[in-house]
């Protein structure tokens, strides 16, 4: 009686799974420090953009009032 090897082609081997996990780990090790290093710069840019947006809206409303005939009181 001969023993036959059973070949299972329906899945990944342990080595393949470990290689995928290794690649994902290396990518995370590279990206996480870069994101945390630039976090304050990202937040400050967002705040500056928000301030510019509010300023633009304020000027737009003032122009509408002026064109409508309202007089603005300045402090």
UniProtKB/TrEMBL annotation:
InterPro entries: ComGC, N_methyl_site, Pilin-like. It is a single-pass membrane protein. NCBIfam families: IV_pilin_GFxxxE, pilin_ComGC. The chain crosses the membrane at residues 12-32. It is found in: Cell membrane; Cell surface. It comes from the Bacteria. It comes from Cytobacillus oceanisediminis. One of its GO terms (biological process) is establishment of competence for transformation. This is Prepilin-type N-terminal cleavage/methylation domain-containing protein. Keywords: Cell membrane, Competence, Membrane, Methylation, Transmembrane, Transmembrane helix. One of its GO terms (cellular component) is plasma membrane. Its main location: membrane. Belongs to the ComGC family.
């Amino acid at each position: 009686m001969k023993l036959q090897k059973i070949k299972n082609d329906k899945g990944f081997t342990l080595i393949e799974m470990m290689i995928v996990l290794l690649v994902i780990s290396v990518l995370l090790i590279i990206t996480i420090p870069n994101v945390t290093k630039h976090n304050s710069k990202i937040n400050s840019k967002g705040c500056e953009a928000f301030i510019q947006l509010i300023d633009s809206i304020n000027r737009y409303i003032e122009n509408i009032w002026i064109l409508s005939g309202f007089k603005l009181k300045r402090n």
